[in-house]
Prior knowledge:
By secondary structure, chain A is an alpha+beta fold. Chain A has helices spanning 6-22, 28-34, 41-53, 70-80, 88-98, 103-118, 171-185, 195-203, 209-224, 247-258, 260-268, 319-338, and strands at 57-58, 67-68, 121-125, 134-143, 146-153, 158-164, 230-233, 277-280, 292-301, 304-314. Chain A is built from 12 helices and 10 strands. Chain A binds chain B through residues 101-102, 135-136, 138, 140, 142, 146, 148, 150, 152, 156, 158, 160-164, 214, 217, 233-236, 239-240, 244-247, 250-251, 254-255, 257-258, 340, and chain B through 101-102, 135-136, 138, 140, 142, 146, 148, 150, 152, 156, 158, 160-162, 214, 217, 233-236, 239-240, 244-247, 250-251, 254-255, 257-258, 340.
Amino acid sequence: MVELEGRRREILRMIIDDYILTAEPIGSEAVRGRHRLGVSSATVRNEMAALEELGYLQQPHPSAGRIPTDQAYRVYVDSMLEEEQVSSAERARIRRTLAVPELDRAVEQATRALAVATDCASVAAGPSPHQQVVRHLHLIPLTPHRALVVAVTDTEVFKGQMVEFQEATTAEECDRLSQEISRRITGRPLSDLTDRMLDKVIGEATLYQRVLDQVGRLLRDQILHPSARVHTEGTANILKQPEFRDVRRAQPVLSALEREDIVEELLRGGLGQKRVRVMIGAENRREEMRDCSVISAPYYVGEHAAGVLGIVGPTRMRYGKIIGLVRFLAESLGDALNQF
Amino acid sequence: MVELEGRRREILRMIIDDYILTAEPIGSEAVRGRHRLGVSSATVRNEMAALEELGYLQQPHPSAGRIPTDQAYRVYVDSMLEEEQVSSAERARIRRTLAVPELDRAVEQATRALAVATDCASVAAGPSPHQQVVRHLHLIPLTPHRALVVAVTDTEVFKGQMVEFQEATTAEECDRLSQEISRRITGRPLSDLTDRMLDKVIGEATLYQRVLDQVGRLLRDQILHPSARVHTEGTANILKQPEFRDVRRAQPVLSALEREDIVEELLRGGLGQKRVRVMIGAENRREEMRDCSVISAPYYVGEHAAGVLGIVGPTRMRYGKIIGLVRFLAESLGDALNQF
DNA sequence: GTTAGCACTCTCTGGCGGAGAGTGCTAACC
DNA sequence: GGTTAGCACTCTCCGCCAGAGAGTGCTAAC
């Protein structure tokens, strides 16, 4: 990729800025007129032709203005962006909504706030399962044949599931069993908890084989299996964008956003990143998302990235504003969670 | 409303049947041709004019065919419908997906199955909160200052929330407190659990005032507050319907379906109904839903209606097939839940 | 009561022409 | 050499029109 310098670079920036606001192809005269450029439209035209040659611009049809390519958005985001600060009024408002006593709900609130503020679909993934450690595991006896098993991880997520005893079991037996399982499972990262390991734990208490199976299922399905940890909000916002006025374009995107596995896949990469990550158009692996950008950021609990949140919108989006918002929400959510 | 008899009634039925399949206005010639009617198109025209006069048909524009009104769908559903049976292969397939060990997930699976089978948006509301009784309430000590409170209702729903102690509390104290609260709250319908009642319970244990506040919040916000109990699936299916090819028509519907309070409101009435309820077009109170029909049915756990599930689709939908499916899924979900 | 026939109305489609927007190219200019 | 004015060219968009097609309501005859 060729480095852009001086005026040419400025012109590209103007075109992207204008296109983001208007969603209309930008012509040479519009560039010269709206911004006080000391050159004629013919000169701008020459530059624009060069920018097209370099792969930064494209024409929807031969005599229309130009629109930015994914590559243009890429340099725009990487080196032309003025990240907008979130207004202090909005900061305060958002912080208040995050003051809820539970991780899941705080994440949900953050997702919602993001959807409202950006007019995009907003997504979040909860704690990355493989780094989690089960801190507590309790069996709560309900009837002689039923109990509720509750597991709490180090990131304060808890999950429960009903388990059934084959034989009647007293509350005391249940307590004992609870402690027994707890002793072997807690403090150990869930990523270690392969089926084999679980079998070993189970082997020593064959009487409660079935209960242990069920506990294992809880851990695997509800805590390890990450899809249940995805939040999505504001997908209908996608329809407000002019590029998705055509239902046939919008439908695949909305369908994809309904699938937790796809959302999880979109966000997964963001966890490794230190800060805000921007995936533009075809940079997203998913075919359905080739007209969309995904902006995501991990949120931290203590030192480790507990999860990711972000937005999905058209590639033509207000990157400056939205990156600022995603960054702020990731930080705020982290702050809120750290208060636990 | 005038009773419809004989041929006129048959013609209306044909028009509705055809329109449901084609989504195109139906003309007199089409009615005569597709079904072997022993009369000419002129006669059909006379009948159609009468049906329009009576409010059953309308013309999108003066020289188009006719389409059914909400009123037409109403008599269609009430008295012309052959409810389609769900194929035994599909019955088996759906029953398998519902065999999960937990109410919430069974409801989720049922909603998903419904969305896939009907190509409509599918919604469900969990157990009606006011009829619920808390059966078990446990405090699980995590640290000296934190515990997880878990409540289990008679419909096997459980919810948890973190609570904080102002002063360090031992596991034994925590257990004692747990039993104390449990004794006073369990077995009592949640609808009795007004703020005043809660205060009375709390009054006797002022030391743990704050914990009790938090327990109260759990019960009110998570179990009483029904919005968290709404599932929605397949909203993007709405976009597949030709009547929603125009984004401006689809957007309000999708936005409404994203709001849990609206979905809950749509379903609420269905709980009282003994069986399948069909709300057609403007029969729905919500302005956004005037182009949609909602078909819902309560599912039973034992003798009492535990929740409602159903679909939202265009008024032009295959009522026969979908009513059959909703009925079957409500029954199957009830069966699945009764096995607990 | 039913039907054939017909005039009427409306939509839909394709073609056409002009306006408008934007371009690339060329030649002149600094 | 970079810049610019001018111009021909291309393409979309819009309104217009005409013809085809669909469907109707009305009338008069059966």
